[in-house]
Amino acid sequence: MPAPILPSPAPVPVSAETRLAYVLQHFTLAYPGAQAVAVGYPATRPEVEIADLSGDFFNEINPYPPAPCWREWQGQQVPFFFDNSVENPLLIFEKHKVFISADIISAAFYLLSGWQEYFSSERDQYQRFPYAASVQRSYNFVMLPVVNYYFSVLKTAIEHVGGQALALRRWGSQQAEFAAFISHDVDRLHSAWKAPAKTALQQGRFWLFGQRLWRHLTQPDAWDNLEAVAAATAKYGAKSTFFILPSAEKALNGTPNADYPLTTALWQRFHALRQQGCQIAMHGSLGTATNALKLRDESEANYLVGGLRFHYLSWAPRYTIFVVEETGFRYDSTLGFAEHVGFRNSYCQPFYPFNFFAGRAATFLEIPLVVMDTTLHHPAYLQLVPEEILPFLQPVFAEIRKFGGVATVLWHNENFDPNNTQNGPQQFHEIMGYLQQQGAAFLTGHEIAEEITPG
Ligand SMILES: [Zn+2]
């Protein structure tokens, strides 16, 4: 089947009005009770007046703005892009008006929209935008949801003018301060035996190899464990979201997709998991991030609709937004950096990515990915020892809690294998215990989308 014709990534200037509307749309989602206060640039004489400091940046195609200025806000050093006046206080209060000295609208738009990855041509071996090419890496702020700090500045200004305190979004029936989204990409169900068997063979321990092969042929694989995974999350009152990979064909470059076929027996198990409240969603195979027809074929033929995450966190910044819009998914949860824990769009709440071609917010919700198990312990990524994992994550979870965000955790089912003592079940349970103790509302991807846009 031929690949569909994709629109070319021609630069489309993004007007100040568009940027402002996009950012305020998200501010209102973060602070649902926000009253109507005029926010804007000096020309419109608004009540909250933002310094207009982006110049021609959004009419051009430079992926990176000038270096940010650092200011303290809420006891934290925060980078402010489009700010050239650190000698001025950030907020200047008058009786019925507030001036904001940094262009936080442009800065929020820049980070939230994914401007850097759209206009940068840096890609890694999987055609992803690399963390190494990001402003988060250049200025070392990937663990800080900077856009949420900008919104906190804006909130202070709006409260001054509106005379009314604004409250952050709360989550779930218990109105929790933050949410946790526990998800599992199901890449492999039958391969736990392979690595130990191969080692035995390489070491010439044929008896051991034979034993492993026999066990493989006669017993369920240690990774064929979806029910155990659901039970492990249920211990904390959580319901798992499983992203199922319907393609078992290798990609053109030989990278594997699933190691299992979608059999009737497997579907019966998915059905039972759904009955328990788990969500069964779509894991887009390699190639689908740039191919709407293939993605639609794989998802609709297998009734894997509603929620999506791409295998290998594949995301082609210039194309994938169209692909996801075209196929009608309600939410995606791919956007995190594989290389590092934290916030790829510097935002800890669900958001609508920006469709640069159409010049508007995308039609699907992004529930940004914050923590992936493989990121924590991998030769190419972070190399944390088991005792370092939870302490490393705690400040990130604290930021999410502070701003009413979603702690999206990806723990592959294969990493519930008790033989994994690096980023395995023990580390998962430590994270879950901590999130529970911090008062997270555990929600499936579907439930999160439902809270943002009911329907
Ligand atoms: Zn995967």
Largest sheet: 9 strands, parallel
* Structure summary, number of beta strands: 17
Helical content band: 25-40%
Name of the top-level CATH class of the largest domain: Alpha Beta
Q: Could you tell me which ligands this complex binds, including any ions or cofactors?
A: zinc ion
Structural class: alpha/beta
The H-level CATH homologous superfamily of the largest domain, spelled out, is Glycoside hydrolase/deacetylase
- Count of DSSP H/I helices: 15
| N-to-C CA distance | 34 Å
CATH architectural name of the largest domain? Alpha-Beta Barrel
Could you please say which CATH topology of the largest domain applies here? TIM Barrel
Radius of gyration: 23 Å
Shape annotation: elongated
Number of domains: 2
Low confidence ranges: 1-5
**% residues in beta strands:** 5-15%
Instruction: Give the rounded overall mean pLDDT.
Output: 93
